[in-house]
């Protein structure tokens, strides 16, 4: 790591001296099942990090640890200079209000319209907003995903791709500093998946968010990633750009790219 004045050269690129997120030697087990085995990595502001790995590799557990839903056994997880493993629940909730989620299935409330889904999220994260301010925030979030016309529709009236985009609007409405994407293109046809990929790229440019993207989709990984880490049995097996991972000589890593 080379430091030059106000910047650090990290992962081959200039970066702010302190990363926005840092995992330091994190361990997590469930009984005899060792899920995370001392993983360490950083994420900078404005960086998209892909976490690649097969089922059971520790991807989802790492994210749960990041937001404090699962307590680590050992290690530190630092967000904006604070070790969240040592925070109270109230302090954790303040950190969580800076994090937006795009769940794999969209996770919308079926009985609420799109407007009501977004307002519900806003009310739980941004206090004391007027009705006009909330309506403006809803419209802006929907414009960001190209679905302003769906504002009064119920989730059941939307296609899978539209529900995914509304889920992304809900993540954006709180103006997060960090976004976690869980299989953002999962279950989508190639055209709709490409639309979601373009949205992820545009959101990074517009909001300068730090993002963690959990995916099995190599096309999504290729076009949204600044950096990729590959997990196997709770350890980082490989790390680097998409080209670095694609050209890795380890047989297990190479297996991701077999047709």
TrEMBL record:
<dbReference type="GO" id="GO:0016887">
    <property type="term" value="F:ATP hydrolysis activity"/>
</dbReference>
<dbReference type="InterPro" id="IPR003439">
    <property type="entry name" value="ABC_transporter-like_ATP-bd"/>
</dbReference>
<keyword id="KW-0067">ATP-binding</keyword>
<feature type="domain" description="ABC transporter">
    <location>
        <begin position="21"/>
        <end position="258"/>
    </location>
</feature>
<protein>
    <submittedName>
        <fullName>Phospholipid/cholesterol/gamma-HCH transport system ATP-binding protein</fullName>
    </submittedName>
</protein>
<dbReference type="InterPro" id="IPR017871">
    <property type="entry name" value="ABC_transporter-like_CS"/>
</dbReference>
<dbReference type="InterPro" id="IPR003593">
    <property type="entry name" value="AAA+_ATPase"/>
</dbReference>
<keyword id="KW-0813">Transport</keyword>
<dbReference type="GO" id="GO:0005524">
    <property type="term" value="F:ATP binding"/>
</dbReference>
<dbReference type="InterPro" id="IPR027417">
    <property type="entry name" value="P-loop_NTPase"/>
</dbReference>
<dbReference type="Pfam" id="PF00005">
    <property type="entry name" value="ABC_tran"/>
</dbReference>
<keyword id="KW-0547">Nucleotide-binding</keyword>
């Amino acid at each position: 790591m080379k430091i030059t004045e106000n910047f650090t050269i990290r992962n081959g690129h200039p970066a702010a001296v302190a990363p926005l997120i840092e995992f330091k030697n994190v361990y997590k087990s469930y009984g005899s099942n060792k899920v995370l085995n001392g993983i360490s990595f950083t994420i900078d502001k404005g960086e998209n990090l892909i976490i690649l790995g097969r089922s059971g590799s520790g991807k989802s557990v790492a994210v749960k640890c990041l937001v404090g839903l699962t307590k680590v056994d050992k290690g530190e997880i630092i967000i904006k200079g604070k070790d969240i493993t040592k925070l109270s629940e109230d302090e954790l909730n303040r950190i969580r209000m800076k994090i937006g989620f795009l769940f794999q299935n969209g996770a919308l409330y079926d009985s609420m319209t799109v407007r009501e889904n977004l307002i519900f999220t806003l009310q739980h994260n941004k206090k004391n907003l007027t009705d006009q301010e909330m309506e403006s925030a809803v419209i802006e979030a929907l414009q960001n995903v190209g679905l302003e016309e769906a504002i009064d529709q119920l989730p059941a009236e939307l296609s899978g791709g539209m529900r995914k985009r509304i889920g992304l609007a809900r993540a954006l409405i709180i103006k997060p500093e960090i976004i976690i994407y869980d299989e953002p293109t999962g279950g989508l046809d190639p055209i709709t998946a490409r639309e979601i990929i373009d949205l992820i790229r545009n959101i990074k440019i517009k909001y300068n968010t730090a993002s963690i993207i959990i995916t099995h989709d190599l096309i999504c990984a290729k076009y949204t990633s600044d950096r990729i880490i590959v997990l196997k049995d709770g350890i980082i097996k490989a790390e680097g750009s998409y080209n670095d991972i694609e050209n890795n000589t380890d047989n297990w890593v190479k297996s991701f790219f077999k047709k």
